Amino acid sequence: MRIPVKEIALPVLAITAALGIFGILVWFAGVSPVEVWATLFKGAFGDWFSWQNTLQRAAPLMLTALCVALPARAGLVIIGGEGALVLGGLACAAMPYVMPLPDNIVGTIMVCAAGALAGALWIMLAGWLRQFRGINETISSLLLAYIAIGIFKHLVEGLLRDPASLNKPSTLSLSEGIRIGGIAGSDVHWGLVLGVIACLGLGLWLRATASGFSIRVVGGNPRTAQLVGLPANRLILAACGLGGACAGLAGAVEVAAVHTNANASLIASYGYAGILVSFIARHSPVAVVPVAILFGGFGAAGSLLQRRLGLPDASVLVLQGIAFVLILASEALRHTDIKASLAKWAAPRPPAAVPGTMHKGLPS
Amino acid sequence: MTADQWIALAAGIGGGALRVGVPFLFVSLGECLTEKSGRINLGLEGVLVLSAMAAFGGSYLTGSPWAGVLLGACVGALLAALHGVLCSLDGVNDVATGIALMLLGTGLAFYFGKALIQPQAVQLPSIPLGNWSDNPVVRSALQVNALLPVGIVLAVLMWWAFAHTRAGLLIRMAGDSANATRALGYSVSGIRIASTAAGGFIAGLGGASLTLFYPGSWNEGISSGQGLIAVALVIFARWSPLRCVGAALLFGGAGALGPALQSIGVGWGYHLFNTVPYVLTLLILVITCRPGTVVVGSPGELSSTR
Predict the structure, then answer these.
(1) Which of A143, A249, B277, B305 has its CA 20 to 30 A from that of B135?
(2) Are the Cβ atoms of A143 and B278 closer than 8 angstroms?
(3) Which CATH code fits A5-334?
């Protein structure tokens, strides 16, 4: 297997540069950059406690990143994963209102499936609007995300509200048996395992199956796909559905493992951070795993930056933003042959064209 | 409902259209200018938030709201210029860059804006359009942002400039055919970077009106996707600055529906009514877009409509 040196080196360089620029920024705020980098590392990967915190945040990031990565492989830029996540969490929390659930793993599977289904339908709607109505999916998915948040708040504060939740409107808590527990001996819940399985499984699917390959053809070259008669509409809807299911599952896992009910804490922009993770992973589901852990680490370190060094909690958002911009800018380097441009730069310049020689031979 | 309640509701929506519509107007004019040059800027959401913070900070520090407006617009132009430069690099996707800029702008605004959540900045003066009425509800609803006339003049100016000036024609040419522009010896990247930066400047005025007029304070939820709605608004307005005015007022009215209903005692569905602008945008897209065809009036080089 070929090791994609440039594909790994460029994001690593870009993130290093982002840390550098972030260092300069905090230096202006009167904080030592070295201390910031040390705190970032300590808060993210310094000890077992930080690792648990990091992995716990990485779980939803993996799943929401898949909501960007899979449609992207089919040629769509979907950025409304937050909506699928929120509705997935809502559907998960609403299940006990709809029907009596067994208080065991079957119940867990049922609430998670409800979450995944809600997310899948929401993102498929964006895919459908694009394929059948010609609406740009980037814009529609984002509008749908805002609509989803409105529906979420409306139901959580109204129909589904637990009357006992006074200051913070929430739904009824899931019963003990349905909740997703921690992996033995840690605070990390099984959602992480779900996330990793989803990334590896979908990565394998894209790489090793005919349908996965077809999706890459549709995304890579729509005209070729049309010529060989691939069912582009169905494939694109499938990619959207699978991606949306992942984001919906992320919401269900957050409800079933972290919050135990649906409340406003669910709207924590995991969906937007997932966009970033997917772009850095170059929309490869397998590469999403390490990138999500890295960004889970940044998130986990955020509160330590705030507590230890007095930086605003938005600092991590700034770091993420700078990293994203630099990684995109590094795309330009990926497309240029660095060796060739260096050689060209080092080579002696050709003599300047003599004016008038260009049109020699043409009738004037 | 009583007659007073009807008046209050109409005043709430009408006044809301004039108040809430102002940020929409500037962002859609900015996006219109950017898109006319053949580039889409989803990052205007980030521009809006960052310039809103900068304008509030500028007004707080200098005591002059107009200095704040200028600072907000300049900061908006800078962030948009970054978008313009990044997009002109080889192999960089403008949609992805827009999302990155949205994240970066929001992050920077929250980072530098932490200190501004408590203080009060000097606000922009208001123009009392409702003084003809004896009804206090109507009078207070028609207190209009001083930037509203600026926006309307700007829209007319842009409409005229696109049709009659050399710069306007160049921008339209870069948006319709990059090859034709190159053939005439102009730099497509240069025109697009300039238009994107100018679009950011105009959107920055919208940011300023968010924090210096209505709702009139800096907080982290200040712009909930208004910069993104602008992209849809421009499609709705078919890339015409004049129609942007109407579209912005319509959306302002839709955005004011929830609060207006709440003010007359309809508490039900507050959050649902707040999603009306987004639902409306989506419906407009469904009505105006056709699969496989290009929306009437769209610049030929625009990636989002192809």
Answers:
(1) B277
(2) yes
(3) 1.10.3470
